[in-house]
Amino acid sequence: MALSPEDKLKVIQYSLKHGIEVTLEAIALDSNRKISKRTLIRWRNKWKQSETLGYGTGNLYDLKNQSTKPFKVRESKVNTQILQFIQSTRLQYPTLGKDKLKILVDQFCLEQQKSKQTQEQTQTLKSISVSTIGRILTTFKKQRIIPNWTTKQSKKVGLRSGKLVELKIRAKVVKTRRKDYTPNNPGDLVQIDCITYLIKGIRRYLICGVDLSSRFSFSYGYDKLSSTTAKDFCIKFQKVFPYQLKHVQTDNGQEFHLHFRDYLKTQNIIQFWNYPKSPKMNAYVERFNRTIQEEYTNYKQWDLKDNLQEFNKGLIDWLIFYNFKRPHLGLKKETGHFISPMQYLKQYHQMCHMYWTGTTV
Known about the structure:
The chain has 361 residues and is of the alpha/beta class. The protein contains 14 helices and seven strands.
């Protein structure tokens, strides 16, 4: 193992103080390794030479290990016509291996020799071995002459409009799971899901959200499903919900990626992801999906198909009834009697006011 510049400096300073012979014996006894006298003298000369170069004695840069690459390296003697043939063939058939390319190269050389060429050209155009073709392919991949389809890297190269370009690879999304997190206050956790309708060959989408603590619910209909519509739904939910959202739980649908995920980051809202094929993890919003279908959307499907604006207008009226007047069975466990989500939020606000002020409302 080569010594670092700092270790070389220690050896040089020791040799200047105690002498070269003593230093070589000490290195051999201490580290069970040998350094030749010639090597040590070369280090010392490099160390002293830095003063004459005008940038001061003792520059560690001079003690760095120099490259051992030879000045003259072997150059490929493969004919350029063969190289061009391998490149064009591999670009046309990206998965073709070196063994099959060997057969095609042999056929190419025979065809070129049979064509009308001078005697000098036919003598230089000789076929190459399989291993040589493999080395050529490796060199082409490093030089980005042909795409590297198998290498796992942050940037890949591919063909686009006949040109080699860098393909952008999407970073893998790290999905946070809910696990043992339990919401205690309104806004701590909101579950969001989407219902898809197919009405006479036309698709419509209903995105729903439920606050687990208060059971406050909101929904809105869309003619398209994307991360933009999911973001729009989240903005609308924040406007009608009186408390700040802290966590959002969704399934793994594409509508909950990209713009939706980026918007949650800007709002400092943590997104919990369900495990695949586990709708029971979104039990609250799944139950609300059934309620909204049984009590509203099943009777308004034609408006959902033909007049989405009129459908959403009627949906807002139904949501006002659901949140302000309709008793919620799930809230009886906490309050002891049937109340609506907004009545629960009103009681929660009164309790918080009494706690912080020490007075009664």
